[in-house]
Specification:
The chain has helices at 2-15, 30-46, 73-79, 89-97, 140-151, 171-180, and strands at 18-24, 53-59, 63-64, 102-107, 127-133, 163-167. By secondary structure, the chain is an alpha/beta fold. A six-stranded mixed beta sheet has the order 3-2-1-4-5-6, sandwiched between helices.
């Protein structure tokens, strides 16, 4: 049953040409890590076809999104880094409201709040979690983020298909892998 739901979600997402990416803009990311994450997103975007629209939301104590008409959205996000607490509830609520083709959540630490109900995956939005590691090996923090994403039922099922754990310099490759599922 879960495999059938997974395939149905992928088919629905493939027909949609938009992606929402929740950027971890908490203080634990530090501006250098945050900018490296945005650089990886920029590299990933270069490989997308012209019909794909990417929406970025910064998740922290507030939610930030580049104003409509912003020419360089990723540069805007670099210049407007929040760098405060790790909250996800409002970001998820905003992301689901626009019914993206699929959703990607980036995190380096567990959030300090619980997500909204229904979660994106419960609302039928294929949702991936990308855990951002600081070292080449898995740490207790990485494992805690994975467990949080799974326990809060934020990512889609089967969970092992929707959670990635990578260092920041591997995010572009992970995003390509995720995007290939919807090609």
């Amino acid at each position: 049953m879960k495999v059938a739901m997974y395939l149905a979600m992928l088919a629905t997402a493939a027909s949609c040409a938009n992606v929402t990416v929740l950027l971890d803009a908490s203080q634990s990311m530090h501006p250098n890590g945050y900018n490296a994450l945005l650089d990886q997103m920029q590299e990933w975007e270069k490989g997308l076809n012209g019909g794909v629209k990417v929406r970025y939301l910064q998740c922290s104590t507030v939610v930030r999104e580049a104003p409509n008409g912003t020419r360089d959205v990723l540069q805007w996000h670099k210049e407007n880094f929040i760098g405060k607490g790790s909250l996800i509830k409002e970001c998820l609520s905003r992301a689901v409201s626009t019914r993206p083709g699929f959703l990607v959540i980036t995190m380096d630490t567990p959030p300090h709040d619980d997500p909204v109900v229904p979660t994106p995956s419960q609302a039928g939005v294929p949702t991936f979690g990308v855990v951002l590691r600081r070292t080449a090996i898995h740490t207790k923090m990485d494992i805690a983020v994975e467990a949080t994403l799974e326990d809060l039922e934020v990512v889609s099922e089967p969970v092992e298909e929707f959670i990635y754990n990578t260092m920041i310099d591997g995010v572009g490759e992970v995003m390509n892998e995720i995007s290939a599922k919807f090609a």
